[in-house]
Structure formats: structure tokens, C-alpha cells
Amino acid sequence: MDGRVSNVDYVIQPEYRAAATPAPARQASAIAKPGLKPNLIVLSWIAPVVLIVVWEALAQAGWLSPQVLPAPSKVLRTAWKLTLSGSLLNDLGVSLLRAAAGFAIGGSIGFILGTLVGFSRIAEALIDRSVQMIRAIPFLALVPLVIVWFGVGEGQKIFLVSLGVAFPIYINTTLGIRQIDPKLIELGRVQGLSTLQLIQRIILPGALPSILTGVRYSLATAWLALVVAETVGAQSGLGFLAMDAREFLRTDVIVLTIVIYALIGVAADSIARLLERRLLAWHPNYSKGPRS
Amino acid sequence: MSPTSLTSSETAVTVSGLTRAYGPRVVIDRLDLRIGRGEFVALLGESGCGKTTLLRALAGLDPIQGGHIDAPGRPAVVFQEHRLLPWDTLWQNVSLGLPGADPRKRAAAALVEVGLGDRLDDWPRNLSGGQAQRVALARALVQEPRLLLLDEPFAALDALTRIRMHVLVKELVARHQPGVLLVTHDVDEAIALADRILVMRNGVIASEHRADTRGEPAASRVQLLRELGVATNLQVA
């Protein structure tokens, strides 16, 4: 939320610091009026809060049928009940586990292939065209085929998530390695680094911003793949919860799963941003606050 | 390059018959050169005369097509760009590839020498151009090289910073006693720093000027400029 405001800081400060004239930087942040910051945040929350209040009011007044859209308070009560019975946490856990497994498998494959292709023109010739051809397929179009292959068990879900995750990681890893300044690699050779040291000290750190972009992107794809995979013949998980609720017209449960999906998406993105800020502290774009 | 009586322990590099070609185009043609420890040699020449090619060959960055380079130990290089790793702090940059124990301590000592002893854990992006180049110099000297190769390291700096760097480099070379090859196109820089100035033309060393025999700086400046194809009508006062 405060991303936009701290953005101003990071654009101005490093430039002026480089020019060794800190005074104008202070002036500039003074112009940014710190008093304005909280006001903007409050402003940005007005619309969502009003929306929920109106939604609740309409539902309470009976203008919204509970079958169409249950009141927010009703969704909250359902969440509480399902939490107490343990079924919500259980389904949530199952979904998270699937996402994690798919992310680990697809991420590793994407990273390994991306690293190979990034380093070696021969690996590129062998691998890249095939990967790009598979990438051209919207991976969700493979769902029927994947069901034929794996049935509707865990394999199908983890496969779909892996597939969605592998490509963004692959592409960004390759890109990150390719973008490294050849002059820095030359420097590594001058300093007497071994190939392993070169990879550790120069190539991987240099590719990291790009790889983390891939991670962030693939987290969103993983989640999307999971939603689709779980709505097809699952026995547990958030998607199952939603499809099961559909059978009984439990709109409140359906809305609840949608909200949870959204919350987890936001959480995953925050984790990725946190990783970026931690690992890329040296990078002017990440050093202060996330870039939106 | 006359044969010399110095022993090998006092030699930073000996080059004999060095030939470097890009396809049919010969850039360095059977070049001989010897630099002693503690000796500061500047290499002048017009663009494309092969001076940077020579430096890269000495650094082991490019293959050579003929001759020998005999340089004990690994030479250190300072490039025109600082080439600091943006993801490493200053001390990590300085200790890059540094073998042996306690790299941080030794990197710290090197940074103190270049006047940045209080910036060990700072990031390169917070440095000015001159400061970054000083870190690059520390990174080269911390290796205690017998041969220090400087590839126009001050060319991108402003005039005042350049003068300060000249003083610093001279001091550090006097203290650490590496043999230095400075590639530059700046005649004044060469005169200010070098014990010996070589002018390179068509892949060979065309002339040599020693500090002890070359006379007045102003006179040698005119002379060197003329050799580099710049006619000057400035008379020596």
C-alpha cells in the first residue's frame, strides 16, 4: 500500500547520493509532505470498505438473495463454523500442499532447464525450441488430456501446477543468465575465479532479480492451475469445497473459497516481494519498498 | 628493449616475440617488452594501435598467436569501468577471488589504503565514479600482484578526480612495488606517472622515453604529441 509513496524516496535518493549532494534529496522528500501519506492510504481503502458495507446492507435488507450473494457477515460465520469443524483447515492444507509440491517440481525443472539453456548454446539448440512449442499451448487446454493420463487423482493436480510453474521460471532464469554483463564475467576470470566460483559469485547473483520475477509470476500461475485442477473431480481441497458447496447451493461456502483463494494469492505475492527485498537489497529498484 | 642484467625476481613481466592477430590482420607484431618490479610504464598510442590488445594479452584474456609472455603470478587488472559487482558490498568486492585466510581483514586494509576504510559494508551504487575506481584499485592491489595492468582507468573521471587518482596510484605503486603497465591516450597522464613511456604504432613499440632522460615535461609533451600524429604549435616557454 505504501509502495507508491516510498517509491518517491528511492527514485530521488540514490541519484543524489551518487552525485554527493545529499541536501537536495532531503529537500525533495520534504516536498513529498509526509503528512499526505496516511491520507492517501485511507483514501485508497474507502471504496472497498463502502462496497462491503453496501453489500452487507443490501443483503440484510433482503434485496440480495442469499442464493445469489450471501452477506459478508454470513460468509464470516461460515468460515468460523468450518474452521471449528476442522474441514476448512484440512482442505486448505491439502490445497497448499498440492501447490507446494507442484511449485517445487515445476520450479526445479524450470530452473535446471533455464540454467542449462542460459549457459550453453548447445543446450539451447537442444531444449529451447521444444520448450517454446509446449509453452505456446495454453496449459489449461491440456486438462482433458492430463485427466486421461493421470485420472483425477493427485498426479493430475500436481502435474498441472508444475506445468504452469515451470515456464515462467525457465524463461526468467535463461533471461537472467543471458543478461549478465560479460564484462563482469571477464573480471571474474581476471580475479582467478573457478567456474564454480564464477557461478556462485557472479552468475547466480546477477540472474537473481530475473529469477525472482519468474518466481513471483509462477506463484500466480501455480495458484490458477490449482483452482482449475481442483474443480475437476477432487475429493478434498479448496476447489472440492467449492464444487461440493455448489451441489447444495451453499453460496456462502463458494464465496468463502473465492475469498481464501484471493487471500492466499496476496500472501504468496507478499512473500515473493519480501524475498526480493531481502535478497536484492543491493538493487536500487528493490532496496526501499516494493515497486508497484 | 635492451637485454637487462636484472634477475628474474625483480621482473614483473617479460614479453618476447608476442604476436596477436584477428584473422589475417596482425595487431601486435613480434613485440618485445620487459617491465621490472616497481617500474611504472605507460603505453601511448592512437586508437586501434594495439595497446589495449597488448594489455588484454598480458592479462591472459585473449589467446596469442606467437611468442611468449613470462609473468610470474597472476596479473591484476583495473579496467576503464570499475566493474564492481553491484550485489556485493565493498569488502566483498575487494576480496573477490582472494585466496587465503581472513579476506575481510585484508580487504579492509586495502580499502583503508584507498581512503574508503569506513565504507566496508556499503554497496557500490552509493559510490561516485572516482570512489568506485578506487575500490577497483584496492581489489587489484589486495592480490599483491607482481604486474598491475591499468586499462585507461582514469579516462571516465572528471579532471580533478583524475589528478587525485594520479597521486593515489603513484603512492600505492611506490608502496606495493608492482610492475605497472598503464594503457592511456592521455599524454599528460603518462608524463605525470610513468618512469618509462612507450609509444605504440602498427603493432610494435615505435619509441621509448625514459623519465630520467626525456627532459622537461613540456618538451616531451610536444615530442610525444608529434609522435602520436598531433602537430602542436605550442612552443616550450
- Biggest interface, chains and residue tallies: A-B, 26 and 26 residues
| Topology pattern of chain A, helix = H, strand = E | HHHHHHHHHHHH
Q: Please provide the count of β strands of chain B.
A: 9
Q: Compute the average pLDDT of chain B.
A: 88
Instruction: Determine the strand fraction of chain A and express it as a percent band.
Output: under 5%
Q: Could you say which structural class the secondary elements and strand pairing of chain B correspond to? A: alpha/beta
Q: Assign the structural class of chain A, choosing from mainly alpha, mainly beta, alpha/beta, alpha+beta, or little secondary structure.
A: mainly alpha
Q: Helical content of chain B, roughly? A: 25-40%
Instruction: Give the N-to-C terminal Cα separation of chain B.
Output: 32 Å
Largest sheet of chain B: 6 strands, mixed
| Strand tally of chain A | 0
Contiguous runs where pLDDT drops below 50 for at least 5 residues of chain B: 1-5
Q: Outline of chain B, from the CA principal axes?
A: globular
Range of helix content of chain A: over 70%
Q: Regarding quaternary structure, how should these chains be classified? A: heterodimer
Keyword list:
heterodimer; A: about 290 residues; about 0% strand; disordered N terminus; B: about 240 residues; alpha/beta; six-stranded mixed sheet; 9 strands
Description of the structure:
The complex is a heterodimer of chains A (292) and B (237). Chain A is mostly helical and 292 residues long. Helices cover 79% and strands 0% of the residues of chain A. Chain A has helices spanning 3-18, 22-31, 36-60, 72-85, 87-119, 121-135, 143-150, 154-178, 182-190, 195-231, 238-247, 251-279. The longest helix of chain A has 37 residues, at 195-231. In chain A, 29% of the residues are buried. Chain B has 237 residues and is α/β, with parallel strands linked by helices. Chain B is built from 7 helices and 9 strands, in the order E-E-E-H-E-E-H-H-H-E-H-E-H-E-E-H. Chain B has helices spanning 51-58, 90-94, 103-113, 129-141, 159-176, 187-193, 217-227, and strands at residues 11-22, 25-36, 40-44, 66-70, 76-78, 147-151, 179-183, 196-201, 204-210. In chain B, strand 6 (147-151), helix 5 and strand 7 (179-183) form a beta-alpha-beta unit. Chain B is globular and about 45 Å long. The two termini of chain B are 32 Å apart. Chains A and B meet through helix 1, helix 9 and helix 10 of A and loops of B.
